Amino acid sequence: MDDAKWMHRALTLAERGRGYVEPNPLVGAVVVRDGQLVGEGWHQRYGEAHAEIHALAAAGEAACGATLYVTLEPCCHHGKTPPCTDAIIRAGICRVVAAMPDPFPAVAGKGAELLRQAGVTVEFGVGEAEAQRLNAPYRKLLATGKPWVHAKWAMTLDGKIATRSGDSRWISNETSRRRVHELRGRMDGIVVGVGTIRADNPQLTARPPGPRTPARIILDSQGRIPEDAFVVQTARLTPTILAATERMPQTKRAALQSHGCEVLILPDHQGRVSVDALLEELGRRRCTNVLVEGGGGVLGAFFDAAALDEFHIFIAPRLVGGTAAPSALGGNGVQQMAEALQLAEWRYEVLDGDLYVHGERGVQTVVSFCPGPAS
Known about the structure:
By secondary structure, this protein is an alpha/beta fold. The protein has helices at about 1-15, 50-60, 85-90, 110-115, 130-135, 135-145, 175-185, 195-200, 230-235, 250-260, 275-285, 295-305, and strands at about 30-35, 35-40, 65-70, 95-100, 120-125, 150-155, 190-195, 215-220, 240-245, 260-265, 270, 270-275, 290-295, 310-315, 340-350, 355-360, 370. The strands form three sheets. A ten-stranded mixed β-sheet has the order 10-9-8-7-13-6-14-16-15-17, with helices on both faces. A five-stranded mixed β-sheet has the order 2-1-3-4-5, sandwiched between helices. It has a two-stranded antiparallel sheet with strand order 11-12.
């Protein structure tokens, strides 16, 4: 069906904005007249013109009497840009096909109503499931006030993220690590525990840089981070947040702040920084996507808090063994196999011999294969 075809194109265009437009939604738009594409566009950067405006500009006079396919209900309020509904009406669009209503309260059905009052036919539902998935982080931030939380780890075939001595460099190959840097480059924050800082002294940056510069967020309830750690010494170059509790000594707070770190005091939960309190604070800052990289204790704490939304797991064809070698998810875990978290619509890809498994939390699992480079 042509509606599905053109909406698929709009959804593909919307994806191009990932990492550039948050906390705004990803939106794509296509203008079609007499069965022919006459204009298209996508929301390219936060604060700049929306997808509909780009598509209408590309279409020009051909937009009059055409159908506009858009992945989200057009906005009808004055934000950083004027209402898209005004531009749609002025262009003479006669029909709008939107994948889903915009859950943002200032729009939420009002955009469609304004268009209908102007004589424009408005339809919803084509490509809705895909549009919902595309903007899951946007929808979660609006609904809960918390960011979408990605979990990432690399492990061996026997499920270990390090050897019994703590050595973890490198489990995954260079191709997998490049994929991780791409992932980092579209995040608002990267979360690790102080144990990872003490063991590996990582940079926690996207190399090469991506569209976003994620804040480095270190969970350190008692102030155990060394002042000569890379993240501390470079805190004036890359935002660095120490998420701590009242157990961090005042002298340590002052020392970290003198290096340019932000010290965020949060409630204690079972001897650790409260995951819920951290996510609420990040949501207040309008963080949309946050990446939790570990170690096992931190990933386990987020898992136990049911706070992980999306998973990026890199499995290397190696075996290390050892009951003392750590696994990816610490914490308490579940008691019964029936309680195990299942990934929804998960897929896998071969990255030069590593297996990359990617999916979201859910109850129904669909498997698809994405062929990767030849190993």
